[in-house]
Here is the input.
Amino acid sequence: MLFLALLCFACGCVATAILVRFGAEHARRYGLGVPQRFHVGHVPRLGGAAMLAGCSLGWAWMALSGPMELTNQIRIDGWTAMTLWTVTAIPTMAGIIEDLTQRLGPRFRLLLTGLAAVIAVSVLGLGVTRLDLPGVDALWLAYPWLGIALAIFAITGLPHAFNLIDGYNGLAGLVALICCLAIAYVALQVGDRQLAAIVIALAGATAGFLVWNYPRGLIFAGDGGAYLWGVVIAIACIMLVQRHPQVSPWFPALLLIYPVWETIFSIWRKAIRGQSPGVADALHFHQLIYRRIVRGVFHDDESRRMLMRNNRTSPYLWGFSLLTVCPAVLFWNKTHVLMGFTLLFVISYLYAYSSIVRFRVPRWLRR
Here is the structure.
């Protein structure tokens, strides 16, 4: 498995380096006045293409090692590998097209992620078969289509949740990397080496991308990268809970509560203001931290100053995310504990957001 991680890391790192060298011209098409822009200059947003290349190589290695009689103990059949690549490539390529042209509307991208979700659920037989809630599980067994619908909803929505938190150098990338490692750890605990290897491939490719993304910000993941993270992690979480009854369905809920709750809260926040959820703004949690907490950076060069503030924003969110990842990994089979930590995160998020908006941030947090 270490070889698989290194293989995907090397491919992701080299592919990202190539895009950094030759992708600068495409970056000029990205608007200068969009509210989510927090950098100076033209930076390519093609990291998703590099990570897709790294994942594809890793999955191909696992699929072809059997027929080619290569030394590899972790294998997947060709049909599973092709299905996995298809359902990840559809939304990822849509995101890459949007990153290149800025002309692929959010509704069309949502439709394509939904199409990928339907293919994944149909071909791989995915479904959320239980929620470990008294009374609800009986309803779930009586109406299996509820679990299928929830699986489609999760695979469709999580890519856009990662896209929402992808605002600063290394932020969404490291969150995705940590989530992949957490899923791999639990998968190994229950003996599912194949599922662990699938997410390890994504983790390796993401690590190769982060070499160029943080702290220098030479390339961004873009919509393509966010969609890749979301689709693979959503499928892996559903497969993990579906295959192994000892894994609580609240493990992925707590593990991914940061991007999921950020999306839910953003939709609610825009709805009460009469705005469409698809309209971009600069009031997300990570943007407020950038504007109101990470302030003490002074430099004569504007681009240098903005880059330093950008880099100092991500660690705040990494720490915030670890508050959910750590208990999720420690209590992956204890539903009530996971539910309690999930509720605690929601309360903490609302308190932190309210404090930042009202300028009630402790002094020791403001740098």
Summary: The chain has one domain: 2-365.
